[in-house]
């Protein structure tokens, strides 16, 4: 016995229906994965920043002495919490448009002007002479330009009064001081951007793994 079958839908219509079903499955998987993806990426970001050379040097190291940051541990913890709190992973609706599928996940991390942290109390301190020192701004965006004239940094505190016990600024008529070049940062290239720039592959892996777990 012979049987004949006739496709009612065209290839284009079949492909369109397949794309719609894929988009539907992806929408469900992405929606279910957003919370876990966000948590995992926040841990990744936190570890990257905490393990950066600058962060560690601010905790009792040379950079804390140079910048004179008192109570640096608490300040850094608060600044980091602000960054992590502002990080968001949000879903863009996944739609089928012909044979194409659009949408996915959007990740927003740190404001590019750093206004959320630079305006915080932790980002600066006041010297005994009443001068406000915007140490975080210096570290993030000032590069290695001269910031203090007629003074140089020395780790020899002698009988001087040091805020950190790690060094002092001493008067010298021809002195110039800037953030140490190995730690200096600009708006596009500082210790935060350097830490985050290494995470792209790991972020993609997290998203792929968590979405794949939820695909039906």
Describe the structure.
The chain has 216 residues and is of the alpha+beta class. The chain has one domain (11-213). The chain contains 8 helices and 6 strands. The protein has helices at residues 11-50, 53-57, 62-67, 72-86, 115-118, 135-141, 191-196, 200-213; strands at 88-97, 100-108, 125-126, 132-133, 148-154, 168-177. The strands form 3 sheets. It has a two-stranded antiparallel ribbon. Helix 1 packs across helix 8. The radius of gyration is 26 Å and the shape is elongated.
Global shape? elongated
Tally of extended strands?
6
Look at the structure and give the mean pLDDT: 88
What are the low-pLDDT stretches, counting only 5+ consecutive residues below 50? none
Rg calculated over all Cα atoms: 26 Å
Structure classification: alpha+beta
* N to C succession of SSEs: HHHHEEHEEHEEHH
- For the record, the count of structural domains works out to 1
Strand content: 15-25%
Main sheet summary: 2 strands, antiparallel
How far do the termini sit from each other? 38 Å
Indicate the percent of residues in helices.
40-55%
User: Total helix count?
Assistant: 8
